[in-house]
């Protein structure tokens, strides 16, 4: 089991546990993190599972692939820390990951 | 595939072309959901899936595809088309039966990549001013009438014009595009008569010639629109001309009908639940959840198919590779297991509201943000500018069939604010 922490736009933190290979999106959806809409269900096709990676983690994640990067550029308020949580799979390397949630996805 | 009696022979009244179903499909959907496992529907030679978890699971599964070419030979596909009266309509087969919607894998990804930017939140947000000014002018022209058909005079006038502007179609051509779109889309339902077939093929042919003319104009004078950008993509080898025509037709057709239908059914839902309309009027900040709820409550495209590319288990029952499933989004979106005991109640503040009206997976509705913005602008404007709204006909008639859901007309009486 790995840990992942979601911090909402008001600064409220929620720490959850995740299985090996589980996407950060599915951890959020299964645990009532309602700011992650994930409308397409994890196919990188809707752009509604946007998060901002905490500064302490940005250097430690694998880079987004072309389809994720293409989607990120078209989101509302993207930054260099933007990622789609459906594309982030939990593993030992990501144990303790901290992500920040936008107030709205669109 | 095992021969199994159709759903009706189990005692489930499932007659999607009937007037009873058109007026209220939800008891029939509930009866199918209560069966638990998928039910065979002989008219479409497919298994109907109605429970939320099963529908979501299939829609989001990359092993479930739209095109049968993964496991059928060309001869088998031709034979299937013949049985379904899909054959001998050259332009329809070339531009409608082949499309981004009915492709999978790398071809689908390549085609979707050409157009997805125009439909993402940041790009759609730029259309807000244009949509607001279009809707303001339209409402200005109707506000003193006191009574209108909301579907024909308001809802039908907006989405086609907006998608037309995104693509690059002049305003004055939009009414004709709507006629073509409806003739093509109607042929998707289970009532595939020869008369409808002739209309669909003729509409596709005229549509094709119209797009050729528009493309020639853009070739001579490029504009800041999607069709010009798609032509540049064609020049760069990203898609061929048939794919370009097919994609333009798909976008125009998808941009017309379903948003008109959900505008009509959404307005009707608020009139059936006047406390929710009052709640939204008192708290306009609920507009996003209210629109989400309109899509859940009366999903405008309630039915899509998928083929299984591998053996699978759905609803506890095993199915072989090649099985065709009918995903009934309208049934899944009323499943109490997903939405609680009030699944049949319209709740403008429902949150979370993880409905399936836009489908799921790789084929998730491309135009969802544009549809929602059209609706947000229209309903926000009407709630501001009208002091009272009521139904003229207590029971508006809904379109018949399994593939669409929306009122044919919605006569409203209203008083300006």
UniProtKB/TrEMBL annotation, chain A:
Residue span(s) of domain 2Fe-2S ferredoxin-type: 2-105
Signal peptide extent: none
Entries under Pfam families matching the protein: Fer2
Record's keyword terms, sorted: 2Fe-2S, Iron, Iron-sulfur, Metal-binding
Keyword set includes Acetylation: no
Presence of keyword Iron-sulfur: yes
Cofactor: [2Fe-2S] cluster
InterPro entries registered for this protein in UniProt: 2Fe-2S_ferredoxin-like_sf, 2Fe-2S_ferredoxin-type, Adrenodoxin-like, Beta-grasp_dom_sf
Top-rank taxon: Bacteria
Similarity remark: Belongs to the adrenodoxin/putidaredoxin family.
PANTHER family named in the record: FERREDOXIN-2, MITOCHONDRIAL, FERREDOXIN/ADRENODOXIN
Name of the featured protein: 2Fe-2S ferredoxin
Organism expressing this protein natively: Aminobacter niigataensis
TrEMBL record, chain B:
Cofactor(s) required for function per UniProt: heme
Oxidoreductase found in the keyword field: yes
Top-rank lineage group of the source organism: Bacteria
Keyword set includes Plastid: no
Record Pfam families: p450
Record's keyword terms, sorted: Heme, Iron, Metal-binding, Monooxygenase, Oxidoreductase
InterPro entries associated with the record: Cyt_P450 (IPR001128), Cyt_P450_B (IPR002397), Cyt_P450_CS (IPR017972), Cyt_P450_sf (IPR036396)
Entry-linked PROSITE patterns: CYTOCHROME_P450 (PS00086)
PANTHER family for this protein: CYTOCHROME P450 YJIB-RELATED, P450, PUTATIVE (EUROFUNG)-RELATED
Similarity comment: Belongs to the cytochrome P450 family.
Protein name: Cytochrome P450
